[in-house]
Fold each of these.
Amino acid sequence: MAWLRPADRLSFLHRFLSGVKGRLLAWAVVAAFLIPITMCGLSRADRPETYPGDQMQTRVCRECSGQRSDCPVCAGKGKVFVITPGPNHPSWVALEVVQAGSPPAPPALTTEELLKPLPGGVGGARIKLEKDGKTIEVTTTFTGRTRVRLAPGKWSYTVSKPEQREVSGSFEIPVLTAEIWKSKGLSRKDGDWLEQPLRVEMARSGAHKSGP
Ligand SMILES: [Zn+2]
């Protein structure tokens, strides 16, 4: 710095020091954000999806009050994400396709429940759902069940399968108003499931082939 005049040397030193201070301040700000995120035990991967109008915060797990390391709701993290849903937040819907006249069964909402057999369940049925020009297609598993996430509004559906008569209809997905407490995995207790499953009864086509 021999080429700098004494006054310039001072200002260089000043700038250097304020640069250090600036960097320290920047790190302090980063740390102030990072520490609470790390401390709360919820990682980015746990973050549930949010939609326009949603508000999200973290709260102490209501199931275990943050006290149980084996809690299935918070996975021992002590805290969960809570969403105050906006007008666009979708609901999970359990779908059931059965042969006409089959007895009712408890609705399946969780992954484990979806694997439970459904009396008279029609596997491989294609369900086409439509709202405002948007189309979603799902297919029932071997149990006759499946699930889908749908935005609020009126949806129409068409259910089809070879050798079965096509069935169509419509139903309404309400705007969610209650808080959604996101637990680990899918749970009907979270508050973002449609209470009743959409149940569709199918009848075999070609009635002239009267079976045994
Ligand atoms: Zn818990």
Amino acid sequence: MKDAIDALGARIAENSYILVGKGGCIMTYPIDFGKTMNIVAINSSYEKWEGPWVVPADFGKISAEFSGWGPHAQSIINLLDRPETMAWSMWDHPPAPTYCSGHIAMMGDAAHCSTPFQGQGAGQAIEDALVLESLFALVKTPDQLPLALKAYDRIRRPRSQRVCQTSRESGELCALRFPSVMDDPKAFKQNIDWRMDWMWNRDVGLERDQAVKIYQKLLEGGELDPEFD
Ligand SMILES: Cc1cc2nc3c(=O)[nH]c(=O)nc-3n(C[C@H](O)[C@H](O)[C@H](O)COP(=O)(O)OP(=O)(O)OC[C@H]3O[C@@H](n4cnc5c(N)ncnc54)[C@H](O)[C@@H]3O)c2cc1C
């Protein structure tokens, strides 16, 4: 963090920013209770990735890939010249047809891992946990468990898979190649505002209550409503 403040100033180093550009973006934000500024520099032009998914980063390569960016970006990239920097390949899940089968369910990244463009991976795992723990509290016998898991799947699968989808689209936005936006700043702001609003302003308590209602309906012999979302 000290090096980051020296290079970028406290306003930038101690807050969250995304620098967007053609074919990639650079995110910076404080972690570790403010002791470290984390940098995520993303090159979105790779079509495929061979070999291990996480490898020690080659600073020369990163520097070359961002060489056409402006001086502010260069100051950030120069901070990456240290041995602990890692290179990660980015993956997400195609939508699974279900998150449950009988007495078994998937949650978190196992069910819906997403790209990092909306910082939502752990958030979605926590939303899964909220719904699951509320349902588990109501399960009294082993044969009720599959019904609880069906209610979980009904509520959590649409939202978490939409998060994967919008995260992927945000990656395109941040690389300035989302078709209806490209590098138009006004359209960019409108689009990203809508995406974050949809994500952050969700009533997760309501989502949990809906899952409980669905479970109770299934317990009484009712059917899943295909229209419900
Ligand atoms: C570089 C990076 C940055 C990220 N930044 C953010 C962010 O800013 N915000 C955000 O919300 N999310 C972020 N994420 C995503 C977030 O880390 C994941 O979505 C989240 O950790 C998923 O939690 P999980 O419990 O589902 O899976 P994991 O955290 O992967 O936990 C699974 C655990 O299971 C263990 N395990 C695996 N197999 C077995 C086995 N056979 N037996 C026993 N244990 C096993 C693993 O060791 C691991 O501990 C980031 C991810 C990465 C890689």
